[in-house]
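yo, Bifunctional deaminase-reductase domain protein is done. seq:
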Amino acid sequence: MIAPFTLLFEEEPNPGPGLPEAMRAVYNGDWRLPPLPAHRPLVWTNFVVSHDGRIAFNQPGWNGGNAISRGSRHDHWLMELVRARADAILVGNATLRAARRHRWAPGEVFAWPEFAALRAAEGRPALPALVILSASGELPAAVALELPRTLFLLTTAEGAERARQRYPHLICLTGADGQLDLIAALAQLRHDYGIRTLLSEGGGRTYGTLLANHLIDEVFLTISPIIVGNPSPPLAPRPGLVEGVGFAPQSPPYLRLISLRRVDDMLFQRANIVIPPDAKPV
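structure:
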């Protein structure tokens, strides 16, 4: 199996349903779900970052989170845990393109029947819906799009028309004015399609977009001890945790730590995202 995480700190603020005993034994603690927001799904994100805050080497063969975690089994187990409680998984178009062989399915990286049992016990479908964020509607060929699952595309009116020509089974969500409207799309996912919990596995730009729209509740962050750096041109830049948005220094978003765990030299952080009402992108 897998050795338990070492618990360094935990201050669980939520009264909601927790984990089964077998998962608590590995996680060395609990993860209780907070109350659902009124007008959208509960949203959390999961990242593995290097010591210097990079999420990818951004070069062929070394472009995924596995290169940053160095294949950590505990990071894989945690990925399966956060997927197990998600009705849907959100990915950006760039992430979909970079991980063509990935299926975003339970058991893909850590096969353990307890994860499927948790999904069933909490009333979730065996396969989470896939929600793709793409303004252009240009989608790469991907196995994930051919699986028997519900597929959503958050896009513009033009993007929806383009995507439907190739994938007519996509459910396209656009804003009232035909533009990409993330707030309206998440509200529609909740009220029209019953998506209660949403895991974001998009990259730094997707995370930045969610932050800018005040749409993140919790973050799971695996902190790897490696140092990735960021080379000078002409080499490709190596993306950081948040890309495409910056916040004014007067009132930036911040984390409120819920728990901290350790395995060898890796740290596993869970935190609330607190976004002050006056936090504004610059």
